[in-house]
Write a structure and sequence with these properties.
single chain, BirA Bifunctional Protein, domain 2, SH3 type barrels, 7-stranded mixed beta sheet, 5-stranded antiparallel beta sheet, 9 helices, 14 strands, 29% helix, binds biotinyl-5-AMP
């Protein structure tokens, strides 16, 4: 886990703001530190991937920042009151979710996030693996403490999925087809671009915490995709063609999520249903849903106010609602 020293952070902002060369002497004088100390901070920034040139008689110049989801880079783009206001960064994590759960158990404030460059044991639902290589994507877990009945908690995946669709829209051409696949996926042009894993602890009438883990494929290239997901996954770069700024994307996602999350806590899901239906991947299509109590099939005709998927039997028009499960779609001709 890395925290940037306050002086390194000041040097970084000075270099950024100047946009040109800053002499070592000026830095020593303004920060009241020695030349050796300035050099040490410059070195630590370089180790994080900042490209900082130095030339005798001219000084230091920032020429490039690493495309890493570093907390201070995310914070620079945040417009939230709570979400992401405290971020723990790991270059390598087993998975960001258990780290956020641990923090939640230790009273982390609502909005606390864990972000990793890479996950060794990234996970999906039912212990399925989440492909999490370094340098490419976003792996973020946010601690939430919604004042709602525990039964309503699964809806949070739908809110996060909708926030993701809005965040993806900001990076993709208008022609991109962005969809929510109930209950926890985001698809772009028929490929899975993001998944959500919500883990929580509650008692009968109170949620202690919910950790919403979000994985988004940002800069994966086709050739990065392992065989198991080569035909089903995609990334914003594969679709949009350009490199996504990871910290900016992370901040943008939290900026979208926060007001939606607070509105949902206050008023429930009803106001989001039209958008959820408009963005639905399955709408009016024949689907099979694997649930714990067996397979259900039907036409997906909508989502209920409590987050269930409405399935209509085309033979007798009978409708049933399922609340969790894995969906497979019957291909359309
Ligand atoms: C999910 O599960 O889609 C939830 C994924 C949540 C990942 C985030 S990353 C931050 C946090 N930390 C974690 O360890 N997890 C969360 P599920 O619906 O069960 O889908 C899992 C399936 O998606 C796998 O079985 C693969 O088929 C497919 N898959 C795995 N990695 C993928 C990737 N990077 N992109 C697209 N599909 C993937």
């Amino acid at each position: 886990m890395k925290k940037l020293h306050a002086t390194s952070q000041t040097i970084l902002s000075v270099l950024r703001q100047s946009g040109g060369d800053i002499s070592g002497e000026d830095l020593c004088r303004d920060l009241k530190i020695s030349r050796a100390a300035v050099w040490k901070h410059i070195q630590s920034l370089r180790e994080l991937g900042y490209a900082i040139g130095s030339a005798t008689h001219r000084g230091y110049r920032l020429t490039a920042a690493p495309n890493l989801p570093l907390p201070w880079e995310i914070e620079g783009h945040l417009e939230t009151a709570r979400l992401g206001r405290e971020i723990e960064y790991c270059a390598v994590a087993e998975s960001t979710n258990p780290l956020a759960i641990e923090a939640a158990k230790n009273q982390a404030a609502e909005g606390f996030c864990v972000v990793a460059d890479q996950q060794k044991q990234g996970r999906g639902r039912l212990r399925r693996p989440w492909f999490s290589p370094p340098s490419r994507n976003l792996y973020l877990s946010v601690v939430l403490r919604p004042p709602i009945a525990p039964l309503a908690l699964p809806q949070i995946s739908l809110i996060a999925a909708l926030a993701l669709t809005r965040a993806c829209k900001d990076w993709l051409p208008e022609s991109a087809d962005i969809r929510v696949k109930w209950p926890n996926d985001v698809f772009v042009n028929q490929g899975k671009v993001a998944g959500i894993l919500c883990e929580s602890a509650s008692e009968t009438d109170r949620v202690h915490y919910a950790v919403v883990g979000i994985g988004v494929n940002l800069n994966l290239k086709r050739e990065d995709l392992p065989g198991e997901i080569a035909d089903t996954a995609t990334s914003l770069q594969i679709v949009g063609g350009s490199e996504v700024d990871r910290p900016r994307f992370a901040a943008n996602l939290l900026n979208h999520l926060e007001p939606m999350y607070f509105a949902w806590c206050r008023d429930g899901l009803a106001d989001f249903l039209p958008e959820l239906e408009e963005m639905s991947l399955m709408r009016d299509r024949q689907v099979d849903v694997e649930t714990v109590s067996g397979r259900r099939s039907g036409i997906a005709v909508g989502i209920t106010e409590d987050g269930g998927l409405r399935l209509r039997n085309p033979q007798n028009d009978h409708e049933e609602v399922v609340y969790c499960g894995d969906i497979s779609l019957t291909p359309v001709d």
